[in-house]
UniProtKB/TrEMBL annotation:
UniProt name for this protein: Oxidoreductase protein
Keyword Heme: no
Keywords assigned: FAD, Flavoprotein, Oxidoreductase, Plasmid
Molecular-function GO term, any one: oxidoreductase activity
Pfam families: FAD-oxidase_C
GO BP annotations, alphabetical order: respiratory electron transport chain
Organism: Sinorhizobium meliloti (strain SM11)
Cofactor: FAD
SUPFAM superfamilies with a match to the protein in the record: FAD-linked oxidases, C-terminal domain (SSF55103)
């Protein structure tokens, strides 16, 4: 997560106190880790004015493959193999059939003979050794022989890499009317079942809706795209109730990457216990007793 790349920061508190913790060390276990209070707090506990970020060198190169799989079980199986065999694994992006098909059609692309149940982008950062490409190809070859994947395309140029990622980025979805995007997190082993149940529930309620799934499976992160003609504010509330209700049942998070703000504020209890929410309120009250910092966000009225 990005917060792991923040080594230190400076923040201004509600009473004007300047908290300077511009740590530059990777390891520092002296007392409470105060920076984590402010990272992701959306300006409700203090205003971050400076930060120390951990930077990493660019890789010497990168290998990118697009794989076709027939089940979510094989998506997880390939992930486990990649984590074990690819030292520089840097991306593992899964696309469900409806998402992959929609974007391929929109882009005028046909990359596999038949649209697979799942398409996964596997990417490895390289250190510059000649044997790395051989190992990457061998990794895919073994997965193919063992029936984990049904087919795989290795990008032979930057143009092909961009084509794979253009499908994953899904800009064609922006053409759909009143598109709703969800950013949730779930245990990796449960993502497949969640997507099946969520898709069925949404399509039962909105038969004409576009519903598709994609995400950073290696990070437990799933995105849901929903669109239906003539959607209203009531439609959005109904979709929220289905998605976040199931997230709670599956012990997931209503926000993997994009924060809480106002939109997800009323669903925070789907992912946090009463004890956690009460402690958050105490922290907010201690640092901002008058509620002047980004009022109404994350926790609402205190």
């Amino acid at each position: 997560m990005w917060r792991d790349n923040v080594l230190g920061l400076e923040a201004v508190l509600a009473d004007g106190t300047v908290l300077s913790s511009m740590n530059k060390m990777i390891k520092n276990n002296t007392g409470y880790d105060l920076r984590q209070l402010f990272i992701g707090s959306e300006g409700t506990l203090g205003i971050i004015t400076r930060a120390v970020l951990r930077l990493r060198p660019l890789p010497a190169g990168r290998l990118t493959a697009l794989c076709a799989l027939d089940s979510y079980e094989n998506v997880v199986a390939l992930l486990k193999r990649a984590q074990k065999e690819l030292a520089g694994l840097s991306a593992y992006e899964a696309m469900w059939e409806s998402y992959f098909r929609f974007n391929c059609v929109a882009e005028g692309l046909r990359l596999f003979e038949a649209t697979p149940a799942f398409a996964v982008i596997v990417e490895e950062d390289l250190q510059g050794h000649e044997a790395e490409r051989e190992r990457f190809e061998a990794f895919l070859g073994r997965a193919l022989e063992d029936g984990v994947i049904g087919d795989a395309l290795i990008a032979q140029s930057q143009k092909e890499v961009q084509t794979f990622w253009r499908i994953r980025e899904g800009h064609a979805l922006d053409r759909l009317p009143l598109l709703l995007n969800f950013d949730v997190s779930l245990p990796i082993g449960e993502i497949g079942r969640f997507a099946d149940e969520c898709g069925k529930a949404l399509r039962a309620k909105f038969p004409e809706a576009h519903v598709s799934f994609f995400g950073h499976v290696g990070d437990s992160n799933l995105h849901i795209a929903f669109s239906v003609p003539g959607a209203t504010e009531e439609t959005a509330h109904a979709v929220d109730a289905v998605v976040y209700g199931l997230v709670g049942i599956y012990s997931g998070s209503v926000s993997a990457e994009h924060g809480i703000g106002l939109v997800k504020r009323d669903f925070l209890d789907r992912s946090r216990s009463p004890a956690e929410l009460e402690l958050m309120r105490r922290i907010k009250n201690a640092l901002d007793p008058n509620g002047i910092l980004n009022p109404g966000k994350v926790l609402g009225s205190i």
